[in-house]
Amino acid sequence: MFAKRLVLSLIFATLACLAFASFTTVSEAGGDKKKGKKKVVKKKEVWTDAADPTLPADFKYQGEYLIQERDGASIGAQVIALGNGYFQAVMLKRGLPGMGWNGSAKALLDGKLDGDKVTFTPAAGKRKYLAQSPLEFAATTKFTPIPAGQMSAVISGDVMTLDVVEGDKKELAALKKITRKSPTLGQKPPEGALVLFDGTNKSEWNGGRLDKKTGFLNTDGSDMTTKRKFSNYLVHVEFLLPFRPAARGQGRGNSGFYQVDHYEVQILDSFGLDGKNNECGGVYSRLDPKLNMCLPPLQWQTYDVEFTNAVRDGDKLIKKSRLTVRLNGVVVHDNVEIPGVTGGARMEPEGTPGLLRLQGHGNPLQFRNIWIVEKK
Question: Tens digits of per-residue pLDDT, 252-311?
Fold first, then answer.
């Protein structure tokens, strides 16, 4: 135990130095624009089932890794698959988002598949947020370089072995792969709830496709809306992001969950990223989430949204809409006021009842266990 704490102390010292190092602020890829030319897919680049035998080897290495001690001495890593055997590991002091991470500086390691393991070295050179090239990709807009040879890692099986060198000291730490699940995953509708989808039929929806084999509601790349309108409510929805390792930004499992068809809560494979208003958990183009709670793709995730509609007095808007959003059980928006409608909203004025909309946006999203409790 004492030896392990020495190791973590050395790693903490390394990560702490990053907080005071000069940041290289990387340019953004402009991925918040939802319109533009679609990438031509020349081979299979999209997977929707974690049991698909055609999944590339990259899939089993992506995910979250953690070494955790009772005294809070923890290190987390979020490993993002970038396609063709390339990865980026986001190293986090004190743990994972929503599980100890203190919001401090991130370290980035570039990874490459090498047989049955992935080797990581410090990310270096010119970087761009969400760049298409894995050698220019940065999972954060503030890229802090690690001196060459100071930190490296290897993933073999379900263990990431972190190697840290500080002066004449060299230490190893083993981070084990974990699979987090939302505490509201599979939550049953409470008494008085209206079940919008339970896997048996889609009678409450326009659009979409019920897959009778899986019991999931599929967008097949197109939008679907409820048949009923709502105003004030608590709604629960579970979603599965596709695995698109070669895609970037808004091309990576893009969808959205519209409240009263006015305000889009973004759905996107933003695992390991900064957590912006156009990424998972954001109110699109309006509000950044408090933290990025997006889990890896092909893993069921949850939204629990408590929504209060705007209030009108005739033609005058006297109160704006408010919402609380829990992504995978963690509050990412806490009773916040929404400044205005988001892109793609219906034309009727704010404060009027509206449909719920699940956006397809050209991506094969899957949904299950959707229910709503209306409020006065």
Answer: 999 999 999 999 999 999 999 999 999 999 999 999 999 999 999 999 999 999 999 999
- CA nearest neighbour of 288 among 279, 277, 280: 277
- DSSP character for 327? E
pTM of the model: 0.91
Q: Which of 90, 64, 76 is nearest to 142 (CA)?
A: 90
Please give the Cα distance from 46 to 251 (Å, whole number).
11
Q: How many domains does the chain have?
A: 2
- Tally the residues of the chain: 376
Q: Are 62 and 92 in contact (CB under 8 A)?
A: no
Decide if 264 is inside a domain: yes
Confidence of residue 35 (pLDDT cuts 50, 70, 90): very low
**Cβ pair 327, 222 in contact under 8 A:** no
110 and 217 in one domain? Answer: no
Burial of 143 (0-12, 13-18, 19+ CB in 10 A): buried
